[in-house]
């Protein structure tokens, strides 16, 4: 499978000793927040495969979608700029009602924070669409692609979160990387019992579950949903696993995987005061900075389960999937805690 080398790899596996002691588990963190600068986080691993495919097909434009503060859209836009591709981002925004049937409207100046500011910095064509249009995002992206084609462009559509069978290979490869690190003696050189990470579109979970078993890195994976529900993700992750296996037939059965929605909070992007308090506590015990949309919720779930004894005696690998710009976009919510 063609792959561009875009990320800073391998990312370190570190033990946050004080936090690990506080939680009373053997906790390790895979620092995928350190895969890059503004292009960093978990999405770059998927984009190494997806953008290689786009270039191989001779495309000059990428189209993708996400929430207004999408980390995936920002990573795509940043890498597109580096590769000389045009990026069209269709971003869901709750205040937009009339978006011209999914054509989209321009963001307002006061919305230019966090990821959205970075999208514009790197020259992306940003179009805000309504939640109703976002429900038919596949069609909206296809229509955008047709319009671009009519103008002579060669568009490549990347699904939400970069989560399809090809993108998920980025996390199969991430598990190969972990296996090489364990072989070299990192983290005591022994496999983990369980991998925990934030789940928003299912590709990380699918790839990591396949790679964890193929490379003998961990027996179990727990995907912490930050939106939707268990049924939705069981179907979505299951489909992506099958797509990836058809692309890489040597992959066997995935590690045992579960979706946990206990930490998703009130809504996508909306956290509880306790979740934010835990994020701050975690940062102060470890220097690890999580975000209130993805990693903060996932780590909150992990923390709750440490307290319930679920991880007693287990070696836990938490994948820090990035998302810092999403924290910076929520400064006013966070400021209530200081
Ligand atoms: C920071 C961060 N962590 C985790 C995820 C979840 O990854 P996935 O979309 O592969 O489920 C995302 C994106 O959705 C993200 O932006």
Please, could you describe this protein's structure?
- The structure is a single chain.
- The chain has 13 helices and ten strands.
- By secondary structure, the chain is an alpha/beta fold.
- β8, α9 and β9 form a beta-alpha-beta unit.
Fill in the keyword field for this structure.
338 residues; alpha/beta; Rossmann fold; 2 domains; six-stranded mixed beta sheet; four-stranded parallel beta sheet; binds pyridoxal-5'-phosphate
The rounded distance between the terminal residues' Cα atoms is: 48 Å
Largest sheet: 6 strands, mixed
CATH third-tier fold name of the largest domain:
Rossmann fold
Can you tell me the overall shape? globular
Rg over CA atoms: 19 Å
Q: Structural class, from helix and strand content? A: alpha/beta
Show unreliable segments.
none
Q: Based on DSSP secondary structure assignment, what is the total number of beta strands?
A: 10
Taken in chain order, the helices and strands follow as EHEHEHEHEHHEHEHEHEHHEHH
Give the number of domains: 2
Q: What hetero molecules are bound to the protein chains?
A: pyridoxal-5'-phosphate
Helical content (DSSP H or I, runs of 4+)? 40-55%
Number of helices: 13
* Proportion of strand residues: 15-25%
Enumerate the strands of the largest sheet in spatial order, edge to edge or round the barrel: 1-2-10-7-8-9
- CATH architecture level-2 label of the largest domain: 3-Layer(aba) Sandwich
Highest-level CATH class of the largest domain: Alpha Beta
Average pLDDT number = 98
């Amino acid at each position: 499978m063609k792959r561009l080398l875009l990320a800073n790899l391998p990312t370190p596996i570190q033990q946050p000793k004080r936090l690990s002691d506080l939680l009373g588990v053997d906790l390790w963190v895979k620092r995928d927040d350190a895969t890059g600068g503004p292009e960093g986080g978990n999405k770059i691993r998927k984009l190494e495969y997806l953008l290689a495919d786009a270039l191989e097909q001779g495309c000059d434009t990428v189209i993708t979608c996400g929430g207004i503060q999408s980390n995936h859209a920002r990573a795509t836009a940043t890498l597109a700029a580096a590769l000389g591709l045009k990026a069209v981002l269709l971003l869901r925004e709750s205040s937009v009602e009339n978006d011209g049937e999914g054509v989209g409207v321009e963001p307002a100046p006061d919305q230019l924070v966090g990821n959205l500011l970075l999208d514009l910095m790197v020259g992306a064509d940003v179009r805000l669409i309504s939640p109703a249009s976002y429900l038919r995002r596949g069609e909206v992206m296809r229509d955008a692609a047709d319009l671009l084609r009519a103008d002579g462009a060669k568009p490549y559509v990347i699904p939400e979160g970069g989560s399809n069978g090809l993108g998920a290979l980025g996390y199969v490869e991430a598990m190969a990387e972990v296996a090489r690190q364990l072989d070299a003696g990192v983290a005591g050189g022994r496999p983990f019992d369980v991998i925990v990470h934030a789940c928003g579109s299912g590709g990380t979970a699918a790839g990591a579950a396949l790679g964890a078993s193929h490379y003998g890195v961990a027996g179990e994976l727990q995907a912490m949903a930050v939106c939707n529900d268990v049924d939705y993700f069981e179907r979505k992750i299951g489909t992506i696993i099958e797509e990836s296996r058809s692309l890489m037939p040597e992959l066997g059965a995935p590690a045992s995987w579960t979706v946990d929605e206990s930490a998703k909070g009130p809504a996508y992007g909306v956290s509880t005061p306790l979740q934010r308090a835990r994020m701050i506590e975690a940062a102060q015990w470890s220097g690890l900075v999580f975000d209130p949309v993805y990693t903060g919720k996932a780590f909150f779930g992990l923390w709750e389960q440490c307290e319930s004894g679920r991880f007693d005696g287990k070696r836990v690998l938490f994948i820090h999937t990035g998302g810092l710009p999403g924290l910076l976009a929520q400064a006013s919510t966070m400021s209530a805690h200081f």
